[in-house]
Write a structure and sequence with these properties.
Layout lengths: L2 H15 L7 H8 L3 H12 L3 H19 L4 H7 L5 H12 L3 H6 L15 H8 L12 E7 L2 E8 L5 H5 L5 H9 L13 E7 L2 E11 L11 E5 L2 E8 L4 H16 L9 E3 L6 E6 L4 E10 L2
Antiparallel strand pairs: 1-6, 2-4, 2-5, 3-4, 3-8, 6-9, 7-9, 8-9
C-alpha cells in the first residue's frame, strides 16, 4: 500500500538532485528500476502533471531564484538549467511568469514559482511501517522567550478554519500560494524562517493564517488574493522541539509541542497571553529547525 507514493517521491528527489544536468526519463527509470512508461504514467497520476512539465517548471523556477539572488549572466543561468539559448529561456520564462528574465531581474515581484512536490507524507510512512515501528521517544518541548519586532505579515487569514489541512481544503491552492511566497523569500523578516502558518482571533473566534513576515518598512507589491497586516512588536513564548525525522516523527513531535503550548500557564513566567491584536505563529521545518508554536505575551500587570 502506498508503494507508488514513495516511488514517485523518489522520482521527485531524483529530479531535484539532477535538476541542472541533462536528464532523461530513461536515466531516471534505470536508477529506480521501473520502465520509462510506468514511471511517466505513475508520476502523472500522483502529481497531476507530466514528468516533462514538472522538470520544466522546476528548472525555470530555480532559474528565477538565481536571477533574483545572483549577478550571473542571464545566458549562464539559462545554460545551467538546460535551456539551449537565452532566447529559449526567455520564451519559457515569459510563458511561466508573463514577464521577461531581464524585467524580473530589474524589478523582482511576486511570481508563482513551481514548488517541490510532496506525495509521500508521514501518514503514508506510518501506514507502510506501522507493523515495524518501535515506540517513539521524544524529548519534552522546550519553552523559551523570543522577541519579534514590529513587522508586516503578508498572506491569507481564513476565519472559517483553524488548522493546516482545512486551510488548504478551503479554496486555497497550496502550490500557488507557497510558490508565490517563495518568490518573496528575499524579503523575509530577519531572524524568521520565511513561510509561516499560525492562528489569529476575531471576536472570540479562532482562524488560521498562512504567509510570510516582512520588515515593517516593506512597501513592495502584495500578491493578488493576499493582504498585509501590521503586527506590533512583542515577546513570544516559544514551545519548541529541535530537528527531527519528518516521515517518522512528525505527528508525535507536533502533538508533544502543541499539548504544552495550549495548556501552559504563562503566569509561571510572569506573563499573560496577549493575543487580541497579535497572532500565534507555527514554525514547521523538521530537518533544519524543528517545530514550534509561538504565542505572544506581555508582562503580567
Amino acid at each position: 500500500m502506498y508503494e507508488w507514493n514513495e516511488t514517485v517521491q523518489r522520482m521527485v528527489d531524483w529530479v531535484e538532485t539532477h535538476i541542472t544536468e541533462e536528464t532523461s526519463l530513461l536515466k531516471m527509470s534505470d536508477a529506480l528500476g521501473y520502465s520509462p512508461f510506468y514511471c511517466s504514467r505513475q508520476f502523472n497520476q500522483y502529481t497531476g502533471v507530466t514528468l516533462r512539465d514538472y522538470i520544466w517548471t522546476r528548472r525555470v523556477s530555480r532559474a528565477a531564484m538565481e536571477l533574483r539572488d545572483t549577478d550571473q549572466r542571464v545566458l549562464d543561468i539559462a545554460v545551467k538549467y538546460g535551456f539551449s539559448s537565452q532566447e529559449a529561456f526567455t520564451r519559457a520564462f515569459v510563458k511561466a511568469f508573463q514577464l521577461t528574465p531581464a524585467a524580473y531581474r530589474k524589478a523582482p515581484r511576486p511570481i508563482p514559482l513551481a514548488i517541490r512536490q510532496e506525495v509521500f507524507s508521514p501518514y503514508h510512512y506510518w501506514i507502510k511501517e506501522r507493523d515495524h515501528m518501535s515506540e517513539v521517544h521524544l524529548q519534552p518541548a522546550e519553552i523559551k522567550v523570543e522577541f519579534i519586532p514590529a513587522h508586516k505579515f503578508i498572506g491569507i487569514w481564513d476565519l472559517a478554519v483553524n488548522n493546516y489541512g482545512d486551510f488548504w481544503g478551503n479554496g486555497h491552492s497550496c502550490d500557488e500560494v507557497s510558490g508565490t511566497l517563495e518568490s518573496m523569500s528575499n524579503h523575509t523578516l530577519e531572524g524568521q524562517l520565511g513561510q509561516t502558518a499560525g492562528w489569529f482571533y476575531r471576536d472570540g473566534q479562532k482562524g488560521y493564517l498562512y504567509g510570510i513576515p516582512v520588515p515593517l518598512e516593506y512597501d513592495g507589491p502584495i500578491p493578488e488574493g493576499m493582504e498585509y497586516r501590521e503586527i506590533p512588536e512583542s515577546e513570544y513564548l516559544v514551545f519548541f522541539h529541535p530537528p527531527f525525522d519528518y516521515l517518522k516523527d512528525n505527528g508525535a513531535v507536533m502533538s508533544t509541542v502543541e499539548e504544552v503550548a495550549w495548556s501552559f500557564d504563562p503566569s509561571q513566567l510572569g506573563y499573560e497571553w496577549d493575543e487580541e491584536i497579535k497572532q500565534d505563529y507555527q514554525r514547521h521545518y523538521p530537518e533544519g529547525y524543528g517545530y514550534a508554536v509561538l504565542r505572544p505575551v506581555k508582562k503580567k500587570g
